[in-house]
Amino acid sequence: MVSGSIVALVTPMDAHGEVDYVSLEKLVEFHIQSGTDAIVAVGTTGESSTVTVDEHIKVVLKTLEFANGRIPVIAGTGANATHEAITFSKMFAGSGVAACLSVTPYYNKPTQEGLFQHYKAIAEATDLPQILYNVPGRTAVDIQPETVARLAEFDNIIGLKDATADVSRVAIHRELCGDDFLLFSGDDLTGLDFVLAGGHGVISVTNNVAAAQMAKMIKLARAGDAEQAHAINETLIPLHRHLFDEANPIPVKWAVREMGLIADGHLRLPLTELSEHLRPDVREALRVAGAV
Asked: The dihedral of CA 273, 276, 277, 282: what is its sign?
């Protein structure tokens, strides 16, 4: 199953706000050539909250087409309505996606039992592997390790993306869920420490612009070479920080365009382009990382 350095891929859009599939193909090639281990299509960084249902499905399918079996593709399928998350998962049945990434229901703030029942319903409605996604900073709900452990008993709930930045949870989840349950960091700033603590990889925003560097770092970390991995991470820390100077994916989409990987950095409202006074910091972070 998927592990290592995984990109939370941006969804490129042209100046008119339409999805730019030419640039999407270019991004997929960039990651294959850079050694990225897998792609998450239409997650939070891929603007899942502003694309239409038809666009959501098409971007995932086009990403699969462009990847052509050379790199696993994980589909973002999360929603705050359980029936909607089930519908998205069913739509990708037989498509070739490696797994679905399903964020905890946002805004409606379910209880731990509500979270369990939400994911249980999804798991029972599809055979596709499911990766839970915990990001309390965006959703206002935190799925607790004990709830994750209950869900890990379902055969097709295979892992967790944890964006809490609480590295201590790696050991807790390993103890409760077993070594085969996949653990991915969703926080770039603590991602290396997460992997060194026993995590299986990262699902990364920084990976959009420093793909080769992230791939090498995570490979070193998983091999136990903490010293060299930390040396690479030191060059990436400015990116880890400045790519979140405004809400993701505002800075990273600007950075991907700055690198020439996409033709335009358009975002859909309510997201707006990166504030001008923040651009020098992001540009310098790209330089320090060796991305430009």
From this structure: positive
143 labeled binding residue: no
Does residue 207 lie within any of the structural domains?
yes
Helices (H), 46-187: 53-67, 82-91, 112-125, 136-139, 145-151, 169-177
Task: Classify strands 73-76 and 130-134 as parallel, antiparallel or unpaired.
Answer: unpaired
Q: Does the annotation list 203 as a binding residue?
A: yes
* Assessment of whether the complete model's pTM goes beyond 0.90: yes
Is residue 38 helix, strand or coil? strand
Q: DSSP of 75-98, one letter per residue?
A: EE---SSHHHHHHHHHHTTTS--S
User: What pLDDT, in 10s, does the model give residues 18-68?
Assistant: 999 999 999 999 999 999 999 999 999 999 999 999 999 999 999 999 999
262, 281, 286, 216: which is closest to 46 by C-alpha? 262
Total structural domains in the chain? 1
Q: What is the set of active-site residues?
A: 133, 161
CATH for 109 = 3.20.20.70
Phi, psi (rounded to 5 degrees) for 14: -85, 180
Query: In this structure, what is the dihedral angle of CA atoms 233, 238, 243, 244, given to the nearest 10 degrees?
Result: 100
pLDDT tens per residue, range 59-103 = 999 999 999 999 999 999 999 999 999 999 999 999 999 999 999
Q: Does residue 218 lie within any of the structural domains?
A: yes
Largest CA distance in the chain: 49
Examine residue 276 and state whether it is found in any structural domain, yes or no: no
Residue 185 maps to a domain: yes
Under DSSP, is residue 255 helix (H, G, I), strand (E, B) or coil?
helix
Distance separating alpha carbons of residues 107 and 59, to the nearest angstrom: 25
Q: Which amino acid is at 13?
A: M
Select from 23, 35, 16 the least CA-distant residue to 63. 23
User: What CA–CA distance (Å, rounded) separates 85 from 194?
Assistant: 28
